[in-house]
Specification:
Blueprint: E1 3-4, E2 11-12, H1 19-39, H2 67-91, H3 103-116, H4 118-124, H5 128-146, E3 154-158, E4 172-175, E5 181-183, E6 190-192, H6 196-202
Antiparallel strand pairs: 1-2, 3-4, 5-6
Length: 208
């Protein structure tokens, strides 16, 4: 009996989240405290372009705080992450997590905890796809405010690893500036810097 990834719906031999979506979720959780901190500079509508005001009073004047940022900074991000933390602990029979500290500390702690538990989440947590989807949406909402996008890297080629049945993986490999090794998001094959030239050589001319 085969399974499918709860986020991208790619076929899996087992588990609830494919390696690629697991890696993407790990990166989003790692970025979340930084994204949270960046939102502080956008609490005042004056911190954004006049055409980007999202909250206005009934009279039409700009509110002193941007409600979209306020929602994410004071409750939104922390509550979402802590909600998933609580549910994972519930499923594992560990009881409720201890929520302490200010909001910034709570975001950092919840994101780190979920990141450390990702292997189990991907393999054994039925709601893993919903978790990954909500974190992706939340990061997207925050990044749309701060005007930043994560570095996806430049396409360097396709994974050439061959599985036991002789099938080539073929997943897209992307290289971010400063990286000295690549890990295939699908089969987890590792490529060292000495392999990059080979990957580029095999890269189709039309790919970008």
């Amino acid at each position: 009996m085969t399974a499918s990834c709860g986020l991208c719906e790619r076929d899996l031999e087992h588990g609830y989240l494919c390696p690629g979506c697991t890696l993407a979720l790990a990166e989003r959780l790692d970025r979340m405290p930084k994204v949270y901190a960046a939102l502080a500079g956008f609490l005042s509508p004056a911190g954004r372009a006049a055409t980007e005001f999202v909250s206005r009073s009934h009279a039409g004047a700009a509110l002193p705080v941007d409600e979209a940022v306020l929602d994410l900074r004071y409750g939104g991000i922390a509550l979402v992450l802590e909600g998933w933390w609580s549910d994972v602990q519930r499923v594992r029979g560990w009881g409720e997590p201890a929520i302490t500290g200010d909001v910034e500390a709570r975001v950092l702690r919840a994101a780190r905890w979920l990141g450390m538990e990702l292997s189990w989440i991907a393999d054994s947590y039925p709601a893993a796809g919903d978790l990954a989807r909500e974190v992706r949406q939340m990061e997207g909402a925050a990044l749309s405010i701060v005007g930043a996008t994560p570095d996806r890297g430049k396409r360097i080629g396709n994974c050439v690893a061959v599985d036991a049945s002789g099938v080539i993986c073929g997943a897209v490999l992307r290289h971010r500036q400063g990286e000295t090794r690549l890990v295939c998001p699908w089969c987890t094959c590792v490529y060292e810097s000495g392999d990059f030239l080979m990957l580029r050589t095999l890269q189709p001319e039309e790919a970008s």
